[in-house]
Amino acid sequence: MKNHLRRLRAEQGWSQAALADKLGVSRQSINAIETGRYDPSLPLAFAIARIFNAPIETIFIDERGEVPSSRAAE
Amino acid sequence: MATGNYKQANRRYHRYLWPTIGLYVVVCFGGPILLSAGWITAPWAPAVIGIATALPIIVMFALMLRLVEETDEYTRLRQLRSIAIGALITLSGAVMIGFLQLFDVVETFWTFWFGPMFFAAYGLAYCVTGRLTSNGVV
Fold it and tell me: What's chain B's average pLDDT?
């Protein structure tokens, strides 16, 4: 899953270690998420969204396609 | 599984790990000295020293399990993968040596080497798992 974490973090002027501290995770976790090697769980994704005060879907991008048409019509 | 706190988990792990390693070193070197110097001659002494030497290692396994439970989710994934790879290599070695002994190719093998063998395989695997993606692809 792609994400805008690196850009958002850079905009805040935070290092990976600083963001990791805020989230209570390792610096390696942040690096793995930024490079797309690891998709965070929902609780961690929501924690990231809260820290950047942004909706979760603007940070994480679902590359696997669009919303199914039946769902989109709802 | 909820994400834990990486720093707190690490701090707690190291707080108990180093005294356990220290105890292991003391018992590991002190036990044979006590026996060979003849300071303890009771027939049960070798058994007690043997068990006392193994106990700190068992505690280290338990500490490792607690670290896995308490750390953050990405580190937990890496740890579990590394433990699985370490167990796979160690158990493969154990099975291989077992059959070699059965067919008299290998005479004796000190089974306590499986402990260091596991930790070595686990450590090497931990270096590699950092390159894996969530799906296990490099």
Answer: 89
Distance to chain A for B136, nearest Cα, Å? 9
Contact between B75 and A29 using a beta-carbon 8 Å cutoff: yes
The beta-carbon neighbor of B75 closest among A26, A33, A41 is A26
Q: Which tens digit of pLDDT belongs to each residue from B58-105?
A: 999 999 999 999 999 999 999 999 999 999 999 999 999 999 999 999
- 8 A C-beta contact, residue B110 and residue B48: no
Helix (H, G, I), strand (E, B) or coil at B118: helix
Rounded to whole angstroms, the Cα distance separating B76 from B68 reads: 5
Interface of A with B (CB under 8 A): 20-21, 23-26, 28-29, 32-33, 36-41, 43-44, 47
CA nearest B1 in A: which residue?
Answer: A41
Question: What's the pTM?
Answer: 0.80
Average pLDDT value for residue range A24-37:
94
